[in-house]
Write a structure and sequence with these properties.
alpha/beta; TIM Barrel; Rossmann fold; Immunoglobulin-like; 6-stranded mixed β-sheet; 28 strands
Length: 701
């Protein structure tokens, strides 16, 4: 099924629709227009019947006019499912889905979320979170796809296309440079134009060019202005340079700070008209805000709303779609594709038919651990723990025993008596996630009630000391140890990664995560996840991070680009992952295109099991005369190969793949120097297969 709105931001405007919208706008009073630029009724229910529990329903999100029979838009949050008090499907967190590197399955996830959102009466979804993972301490890392703009953009575009197939308006968030959680309401991110355009915006543009029809502005400041008040960000770049046709709405409650935001390009204030509403109406009447900006905002809202509401639906939607069997099985499939096998010294896969005792250690193995409990929280009808999944999948001669690890002596005896030990370690919503800062987020709105803070940025990058101690003790007790790590981003493993026989990133794997984990452990599926970020050997190899910062500088380098620039090798590089088979790469072949080459490579499964390889294409800039990364990801493809099978994958080069942003001319430029093409299984392995090619500047660069 194809996204019916893929050309929303690129096709010529519909003259008839534009005239219809203009006639409505011309007929509306200022009061009516301003009313359309905010949500309504949120606080009354939130502080009343909903008992301060967010995500209990779809929320009015702008538009709505009774005289013209225009309904309100209704917002449903994501990104790991349609958020509601009703039971809905809980998918693995976005970072886990980023580890699949699978556009097709992410598009299917988008469709499933949209189907359930439509069944709940929603018309706009907040599922597309594409903020760049600059540092693994970021609390909301689990809500995005990873550290690389190309990977982020491709996965976000796939989710967008899936959502909008079912005429749900996708909103890309949080625009922009939003990657610190605790200080998100105040931090001023200082970023050069070059770093902004090359690192922090390309994925947003890619998603918008896939048809994404709405954007949520971020809480933080950018170069001195709150994002919702940033003329360079919202008006100059988003609406003028990129030609964005849809509307921009704020993040919730503290999303904007004055009526002047509409001048900057913020079309809707959510969830209520705190600074819009009567305040905005008064600002227009006093001449502080040009009414033309209000008209533009209403035009953008109605253009988007009418386009989606009048499109043919591919199906009908009902309560039977909520957490239906097809979506539950999709959640399991996604989880199975997301696990990243980091190490395997001959331990996996386990033979379920072999008589054996498997000791499952650690409280997280028996707990439902779906991710943070902020705006992305989902309410599934059930969730399968890792312990339950293993018990269900084990053969008749396999005994599963469990110990929570609270008594070290008992735990060690359990491990010594077992043939295999599986230790589940990592974090929960208490260690990382959306920061809900007590009453600060709702300051002055309900002073009689207090709410404890929770979630936030990580205060450490290692495992908890109790987890590291447990791994050390279990390694001494049994050399057949698998460590499963539950986390939303990178964990530094230097103190223990050489001890266990196997290590697997399991993420927060969704409602079917336990069953999917067992399938991977027993070899029913071949692990195919690849790291969507770098795991360093030392926190000092990462950019500066301060969770309480008032201001911070963002530069060109982070993740694999920073490690390569500084000559540091990763513990596990970007794009890395093992499986139960082996792949061999041939030599790169270059074919001439009109101006730039296309590169091909043969990949062969040389093992004895079927498997899926993620082939990654990088371009190197070693001959550049300016400061540039060593190389950058420019494409990726997944190949399923049977034992002995060979397939060819091809990557074409565009001028944009080579370009850098020149701040003097405020344009993209291509250097007339040699570049190198790198193809391989991860960013470090790709260094071993390179080919140099010359290029000339693009005519339109």
């Amino acid at each position: 099924m194809v996204n019916a709105h893929k050309d929303f931001n690129t096709a010529p405007l519909d003259p008839a629709l534009e005239q219809e919208v203009k006639s409505i706008v011309d007929d509306l009073s200022l009061t009516e227009k301003v009313k359309m630029l905010s949500g309504h009724g949120f606080f009354e229910k939130f502080f009343g019947e909903e008992n301060r529990q967010f995500g209990q329903r779809a929320y009015p999100a702008g538009s709505g006019n009774e005289r013209h029979d225009i309904p309100s838009l209704y917002f449903c949050d994501g990104p790991r499912g349609a958020r509601h008090k009703r039971n809905t499907t809980c998918f693995p967190v976005t970072m886990a889905r980023g580890a699949t590197w699978d556009r097709d399955i992410e598009r299917r996830v988008g469709e499933a979320i949209a189907i359930e959102a439509r069944a709940l009466g929603a018309s706009i979804s907040g599922a597309v979170c594409i903020n760049l993972l600059r540092h693994p301490a970021w609390g909301r890392a689990q809500e995005t796809y990873g550290e690389d703009p190309v990977h982020l953009g491709e996965m976000g575009a796939a989710l967008t296309e899936g959502l909008q197939t079912h005429n749900i308006i996708a909103t890309a968030k949080h625009f922009a440079v939003n990657s610190i959680e605790n200080s998100r309401f105040k931090v001023d991110v200082r970023v050069t134009d070059r770093a902004l355009h090359e690192v922090y915006l390309p994925h947003f543009k890619r998603v918008l060019m896939s048809g994404c029809a709405s954007v949520m502005s971020a809480y933080n400041k950018i170069n001195g202005d709150y994002c919702a008040h940033s003329v360079p960000l919202l008006r100059n770049i988003l609406k003028e340079q990129w030609g964005f046709r849809g509307f921009v709405h704020s993040d919730w409650v503290k999303g904007c700070y004055g009526a002047d935001a509409v001048t900057a390009g913020l079309d809707v204030e959510m969830p209520e008209g705190i600074f819009y509403g009567s305040n905005l109406e008064g600002a227009v009447e006093r001449g502080e805000v040009d009414e033309a900006h209000v008209d533009e905002a209403v035009t953008r809202i109605l253009r988007t709303q009418f386009t989606f509401a009048r499109a043919d639906d591919p199906r009908t939607y009902s309560e039977e779609d909520l957490a239906c069997e097809a979506h539950i099985q999709l959640s399991r499939e996604v989880a199975g594709k997301s696990f990243v096998l980091l190490k395997n010294d001959g331990l996996l896969p386990l033979d379920r038919d072999k008589p054996q005792t498997i000791a499952v250690i650690g409280k997280l193995a028996a707990e439902v651990n779906l991710g943070d409990r902020g705006s992305s929280s989902v309410n599934p009808p059930y969730a399968v723990t890792i312990l339950d999944g293993l018990k269900s999948a084990a053969g008749p001669d396999t005994q599963i025993v469990f110990d929570d690890g609270s008594d070290p002596a008992r735990m060690i005896e359990c491990a010594k008596a077992a043939d295999v030990v599986i230790a589940i370690v990592g974090y929960t919503w208490e260690d990382e996630g959306e920061f809900i800062p007590g009453n600060e987020a709702l300051e002055g709105l309900d002073p009689d009630k207090q709410m404890p803070s929770r979630g936030g940025d990580r205060s450490f990058l290692n495992l908890l000391k109790s987890d590291e101690d447990m791994i050390a003790e279990l390694s001494d007790a049994n050399d057949r140890l698998l460590v499963g790590v539950m986390s939303g981003s990178a964990v530094i493993m230097e103190s223990w990664r050489n001890k266990p026989a196997a290590i697997m990133m399991t993420w927060y794997p969704g409602m079917e995560g336990g069953n999917a984990f067992a399938s991977a452990i027993f070899g029913d599926i071949n692990p195919e996840g690849r790291l969507p970020f770098t795991i360093p050997t030392d926190a000092d190899h990462l950019p500066f991070f301060d969770a309480e910062a008032d201001d911070i500088k963002y530069g060109l380098y982070h993740g694999y680009t920073l490690l390569e620039k500084s000559g540091q090798r990763a513990a596990f590089p970007f794009g890395f992952g093992l499986g139960y088979t082996e792949f061999t790469y041939g030599d790169i072949r270059a074919t001439k295109g009109d101006k730039l080459p296309t590169f091909e490579i043969d990949v062969t499964n040389t093992g004895d099991k079927p498997g899926t390889e993620t082939v990654q294409f990088y371009i190197g800039f070693g001959e550049s005369l300016i400061d540039r990364p060593v190389k950058l990801l420019r494409g990726f493809e997944k190949l399923f190969l049977r034992p002995g099978e060979t397939k060819t994958v091809a990557f074409s080069v565009t001028h944009q793949d080579l370009a850098y942003y020149d701040e003097t001319s405020r344009s993209w430029q291509v250097e007339p120097v040699g570049h190198t093409a790198h193809i391989g299984a991860n960013c470090e392995d790709a260094l071993t297969r390179t080919v140099r090619f010359e290029t000339e500047p693009a005519d339109d660069s």
